Prior knowledge:
The chain is α/β, with parallel strands linked by helices. The chain is built from 8 helices and 16 strands.
Amino acid sequence: MADLSVDLGFRVLKSPLITASGTFGYGEEFLPFYDLDILGAIVMKGIFRDPRPGNPPPRLHETPAGLLNSIGLAGPGSAALQEIIRRLHARTAVPIIVNVCGEDDEEFAEVAALFSAMDEVAMLELNISCPNVRQGGACPAQDAGHTARLVRQVKDRVRKPLIVKLSPNAVDIVAVAQAAQDSGADALSLVNTFLGMAVDITTRRPVFANVYAGLSGPAIKPLALRLVREVCRRAYVPVIGMGGIASGHDVLEYFLVGAAAVQIGTINFREPAAALRITGEIEAEMERLKIKSLSEIRGQLQA
Ligand SMILES: Cc1cc2nc3c(=O)[nH]c(=O)nc-3n(C[C@H](O)[C@H](O)[C@H](O)COP(=O)(O)O)c2cc1C
């Protein structure tokens, strides 16, 4: 049997596969499909301090090989998520990662501190792609200076490993990645969704109330792979790659450009047990390529 474990430096995961925030509910919904313990970890849907209704419908729109979403980070609030995590932890040993959001920097730090104090939580993922309401709707991930300040402020308040999730919509994602790691990020994850839009030609209106929405799924894989490679070339902390992964082959591509683990998102909607299939495919590819551990090919792209 191939060894699927990966070492993030601060933690060893039994599998490179992590389910991505917003595409795996709060884990509980997927318990009927397979034993979540086969996963490296799961990431919860993004959470703010208070409950949020999210955006008006429609919230999802399919595109060729992709999915546009404008959920608006709907959620039950931190207190309710704490209860969900306690319940889930009692039913599975899979490491739980909380995707932390905030309408301003103080809220990010407060939510991160709250979940950092929970024994049931393994790691935190800072979703710096949330619009900062107090700062005119700009999200920290678009600005290296803001990212540096925010990561430092959060890092001071937490004792769990901190993953910072980057946005592909930044003008210079490598500069933002460097700011995050220099300010204390233990790992980087990328990418979040690409900004896109869809138009209804009958009504002559945008499909989404907010006009723009986030694109994910196989359509973004080549774009995401390039950005992961760019960030990996400069990163001294582990990088968790994602964007359009739908097969074991895709996972190995991300490892070759330097990823230390991966997340799978949109594929979970189409195929709830995708992680089970992809796990088998990774093992088969490793056997075909005669590698015993994914660390053997990490960053080994010959370019
Ligand atoms: C419906 C939906 C909801 C999402 N919600 C979140 C979220 O709450 N926090 C976050 O950091 N990313 C969120 N994402 C982004 C995914 O975690 C992931 O970064 C992105 O979809 C790219 O991976 P994929 O192509 O495998 O889906 C969401 C994506 C989708 C499709």
